Amino acid sequence: MSLPPLALTSGDPTGVGPEITLKAWQALKGRLPFALIGDADLMQRLGATAGVPVERIATLAEATAVMPRALPVLHQPLSGPVVPGKVQPEHAKATIESIRQAVALARSGAALGVVTNPITKKVLVDGAGFAYPGHTEFLAALGGVDTSVMMLAAPELRAVPVTIHIPLAEVPHALTADLLERTARILHRALITDFGLPDPVIAVAGLNPHAGEGGLMGREDMELITPVLERLRAEGMRLKGPLPADTMFHPGARETYDAALCMYHDQALIPLKTLNFSEGVNVTLGLPFVRTSPDHGTAHDIAGSGRADPDSLIAALEMAHEMGTRRAGAGETT
Length: 334
Fold this sequence. Notes:
Layout: E1 6-9, H1 17-28, E2 34-38, H2 40-50, E3 54-57, H3 63-66, E4 71-75, H4 92-108, E5 114-115, H5 121-128, H6 135-143, E6 149-154, E7 157-161, H7 171-174, H8 177-193, E8 201-205, H9 220-234, E9 238-243, H10 251-254, E10 259-262, H11 265-275, E11 281-285, E12 291-294, H12 311-329
Parallel strand pairs: 1-2, 1-5, 2-4, 3-4, 5-12, 7-10, 8-9, 8-10
Antiparallel strand pairs: 6-7, 6-11, 11-12
Helix pairs in contact: 4-5, 8-9
């Protein structure tokens, strides 16, 4: 079965996105087709310096044939020159348009999935009035879904936060039974359809220290989390918890489950990034298309220096290809 290529967004062009894209092509050119949606002139200049051939293409379908000899780029022009490492809000509209175009290609079936290079959210707000807290929420809007779920995945751990980009003080109010149930269902389905696990086990972290310790350290674990888990277990889902978060992530514990469902952002991301910072992948679950991203930011401090590590982007491209292949094999549209 011939599968379409992946669509890779430009991300913030003043960050490390252009550099890691060129390095990812060098690593993957013989086995995994993708095309960058970005400024072809910029990439050709950078590619000439790095010894990477870059070729402008007219349609995404051309990427598969071009990939073995050059990085394929669907030209999406920037508004002016790029200064690596400098905050340039004038490029915000082009950055956003690259994401829109990649999603449109995926939803039409022209792309196997979407992989996003890192963005700088404040730059998008300042330069284009970006109205979303981050990639995850914007992609949910483009995908036409009310709820999407952020997963951080590495060989050592898959972790999902129920609440994401909100202050810690707001977590107990934002954490509702409905949100927890919807997140658990989306995670469970994704583990089956996208990760090929027919009967996944999910470990669920408590909100409070020691998972509340019977109400002594907070009652949310027993009054909110436990009833939701019991209801889902009655349907056949294999759920462990609520568990004390401080004992969930050592090697022996991780061997007993396929993914960790956590109550807030740092509870999920700190263990993942501690275990494997360089190869973590950000995956958005619950969308009508595959989406992954490297689990790091724009790294303006090293942009243009040649020191950017492409491993997370390479892992994101590989994971998106695997997920898209599974969906295509199951007969699901992207």
